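Reviewer 2 asked us to include a model.

Predict the structure of this chain.
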Amino acid sequence: MSFQVTEVQKALKGADYPMDGGELATLAEKNGADQELVGALRGLRQVDGPNTVMAELKGDLGGSTPGGNSRDERQYKDVESPSFQVDEVQKYLKGVDYPADGARLAQAAKGNGAPDDLVETLQGLREVDGPNTVMKEIKDHLGGRPEDA
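Predicted model (structure tokens):
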């Protein structure tokens, strides 16, 4: 079975890492996740955050979008400009040592080749304790149509 990253993220909403597979599965069930995803999560070792969950599930990621929409038919939410995709932000923040303030996040993103609008958005953030908090802080800029669409 393949899972969409957004499906996994929704299932693990409210996670308090580190967590083991049993705890992840229980949380996913509570959040209404599909039983196949619950089972996949149950088999994971202890993880320290969402990036580790995604790495552990990487062979199971990339399935069809829930609802059957293809990329061309997908609906995108309206977001404040500029807009970014979650996986794009995660890529540009690779290697950040948390907690980190906006200046450190912006510096890391710039070093990882992030576009100027993302660097500027990150620059204004307060100190955050991890990638989930970064996403919460820039939630108004997440979603929208990907740049390559």
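The CA atoms of residues 30 and 127 lie 30 Å apart. Helices lie at 5-11, 21-30, 35-42, 50-57, 86-92, 102-111, 116-123, 131-137. We have added this to the supplementary material.
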